[in-house]
Amino acid sequence: MGELIAIVSGKGGTGKTTVCAGIAEALALNGEKVLCIDCDVGLRNLDIALGLSQLGSLSFLEVCRGEYTLDHATCHPDYPNLFFLTAPMTCMADQITPEAFGAMLDTARSHFSYILLDAPAGIEAGFHLASRFADRTIVVTGADPASIRDATRTAEVLELMGKQNVRLIVNRISKKLVSTLNITVDDIMDQAGVSLLGLIPEDSNVILSAAYQQPLLSCTKRGAAAACRRIAKRIQGLRVPVKI
C-alpha cells in the first residue's frame, strides 16, 4: 500500500510547493511510482513547479466525482513514474466532501508508492483536507521568526489532529542567514517542536526553474535539487547525512 504524505506550511512564501515538487521528482528518479496532488483549491501552482503548466491536467475533484479515474492523471513527460492531479478552480476547499476525497486516496494507495499532497499555506480548510488522511506530514519553514512561529502553530494543530509522524524541513537556509539571525537549526527544531527531516539551501536555480517552467531536478544536480534527493532517500528509509 502506498504512503500518503502531506506537505504543509504555516505561512506562504516558505517554498513549500517547490519542495513538494522536488521531493516528488527525486522519488520518481529513485524508481518509485508517485502521484502529486495539488490541494491548494483556487490558487494552484504545483503544475508550474513540476514543469507541467503547458499541459492540460485533470483536477482531483473530477476523480472524486467519478467522472474520471486515476488512470487519467497527467503523466510527467520527463519522469514517467510521476503523475499529477491539479486543484479545482471552481469551488472552495470546504465544499469538497472529505469522504469522497478520502475514498480517492484509498484507491491511489493501491496504484502508487507515494502520494504527495501539496496543502495550501495556513491552517484553514485545505490544510485540514490534505492533512486528515496523511500517514506522514512534512512542515516546511524558513529560518525567519515569522515562518518559525507559524510552523510551531501548524505543528500544534497537527498534534491536536492526532498526527504523530510529523517532520520539519527548513528551506532557503544559508550559513550567512543563520549567523545573521543568531539562530541554529537546533533552535528552530526546539521552537517548532518537530524533528528535522532535512535542510534545503537558498538556491537561485529554484527561481530560474520556475521562470522557465522546468522541473528543478532537470535544471541542476546541486544545491536545492541535491537536498531534495537526500530528503527523498530519507523518506524511503535510507540513512543519509543532513547538511546544507
Would you mind describing this structure in some detail?
Strand 3 (about 75) and strand 4 form a beta hairpin. The two termini are about 35 Å apart. The protein has helices spanning about 15-30, 45-50, 60-65, 100-110, 125-130, 145-160, 175-180, 185-190, 205-210, 215-220, 225-235, and strands spanning about 5-10, 35-40, 75, 80-85, 115-120, 135-140, 165-175, 195-200. The protein has a single domain (about 5-235), classed as P-loop containing nucleotide triphosphate hydrolases (Rossmann fold, 3-Layer(aba) Sandwich), CATH 3.40.50.300. The protein is built from 11 helices and 8 strands. Helix content is about 40%, strand content about 20%. It has about 240 residues and is of the alpha/beta class. The radius of gyration is 17 Å and the shape is globular. An 8-stranded mixed beta sheet has the order 3-4-2-5-1-6-7-8, sandwiched between helices.
Question: Key terms for this structure?
Answer:
about 240 residues, eight-stranded mixed β-sheet, 11 helices, alpha/beta, Rossmann fold, 8 strands
Low-confidence segments, given as residue ranges, are: none
* Sequence of secondary-structure elements: EHEHHEEHEHEHEHHEHHH
CATH 4th-level superfamily: P-loop containing nucleotide triphosphate hydrolases
What's the CATH topology label?
A: Rossmann fold
Total strands = 8
Q: Count up the helices.
A: 11
Question: Structural class, from secondary structure content?
Answer: alpha/beta
Strands ordered across the widest β-sheet: 3-4-2-5-1-6-7-8
